[in-house]
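Summary for the lay section of the report: proteins are chains of building blocks that fold into shapes. Here we show the chain for Exopolysaccharide production protein ExoY and then a coded description of the shape we predicted for it.
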Amino acid sequence: MSDQNLFIAGPRLKWAPFLSQGRQFVPHRVVDRALKRSFDVSAALTALIILLPLFVMFALAIWAVDGSSPFYRHRRLGRGQKSFGCLKFRTMRIDSQEALARHLSENPAALAEWNLTRKLKDDPRITPIGHVLRKSSLDELPQLVNIIRGEMSFVGPRPIVEEEIEKYGDAASAYFAVRPGLTGAWQISGRSDTTYAERVRLDRQYVESQNFAGDILIILRTIPAVFMVKGSY
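The coded shape description reads as follows.
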């Protein structure tokens, strides 16, 4: 691969520093775009069909906890800064917002952690079945529907909420140039064990150097990363 493409070096993915060379972001080649979208649709449809029994089992297990919908739709920003409903299996209590606000007001350390990463290792909102789904990343399987609808891709930056735009700074334009992904550089580089600044850097480098072959490599590296459950909570 050329110095514009991703390569593997040790436990993390690294990309050539486009910005240090003063280069501007160039959209994918037409062939790469076509391959990426064709793969997304065909692979997502196939996965949905194969995993349908698993979907039903998880949905029933979640519904049995409190009798509420097993699915959760959260507004995220995607390509072109368009808002969409990002789907997940519901892993939180029905009163999750109240539980979070109460927990953060009573725990300064948790508030600092939330402000830094937008995540909590000890999250009072998560249900018992939710812990299992999050640890295994199975809570994100419904995003296969988002992929088919063209709102997401298999590989890309993690979808963000509007409040996170300021954290991206001048890297926001790179984020909004592509579809967010079910997996990506962040997921195979430590996930929540990384800082938010590192996540932004990984997303930016992915966008500036991505190609279809690199996407396949990330997907292959996602499999062991999921089983290792490092940084997953």
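Put simply, here is one thing we learned. The two ends are 34 Å apart (CA to CA).
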